[in-house]
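Before a colleague's protein record goes any further, I have to sign it off. My question to you is simply how this chain folds and whether the tokens agree. I do not need a full report, just your reasoning and any doubts. This is what I was given:
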Amino acid sequence: MKVDWLVIRSSAISFRIDRRVPIMLLFLLAVIGVAMVINVGRGEYPISPLDIIKTILGVNTGNPDHLFVINTLRLPRTVVAFMVGMALAISGTIFQGLTRNPLADPGIIGINSGASLAAVTVIVLFPSAPVYILPLSAFVGALLMAALIYWLAWNNGSSPILLILMGVGLSAIASAFTSLMITFGEINSVNDALVWLAGSVYGRTWEQVFSFLPWLIIFVPMALTLARHLNALNLGDDVARSLGSRVEWQRSLLLLVAVALAGASVATAGMIGFVGLISPHLGRQLVGTNHQGLIPTSALLGGMIVVVADLLGRTLFAPIEIPCGVVTAAVGAPYFLYLLIRNRKK
């Protein structure tokens, strides 16, 4: 039986969360902090956790190399991994709530493919474009893909399965056009696009952190504010309307948030799959189905998953580095098959 831990109400905001949520969030933050310190410290040039903390806090460690290795090479990529994981997890949670489908994920239903096509187009055709252009182009590509999927699904009697099928089909088409762009692109731009498509935070700098940060600042609070409406929509349109929800408006806002976060994530780190699928499932096991607690819990789980995936990709077969997108796919693909089997009769 769930017991409310905190209730906040005002004219614009209303939160009602399970008592497990704040405890779980604190626990996940501690685990993420440890994972990030380990990720920053591991590599060909190992650094102790104490020296990492000192360097981040601006305390002199007596080794001038620490500042460069940590603040220039390792910390930005770790921060990007955490931010991308958060965004993908929130996006996946919203898609699963909107479609009432546990198999929904921005990668599986084709949103990431639309973002990827737009981003690869920019990388190949406009290699000197400013860094902030990539998230904007990916957002436009993701938004167009989402609109097309929903339009086709609704015109054919929308259902959760139909939405998945439309997404898979359109994703294949977008992937084909992406391959076409790569085939006819200039060799240096193509190499950049191929590395990016594998899903990696390799070489990410503070420039990517600060270009991605506004997307989180704008859309994460929107997701948290709209979480109670997502609870209502998850019960079905008729029930949501009876509860006073403006169904179409709120669905559109939630879709905008999910697409924006997915598109910005793809633009920043490429195709990192299955994070938006796994995180909400783990979150429900920990804090239940109330999206007001599920969204922040899933966000931290997603950030943790990508940070750990980056750590494993860097260290398992060192000095060879495996993109974190490959690691998440190695875990996520079997989990997706498990969900398909478990939900085949639903």
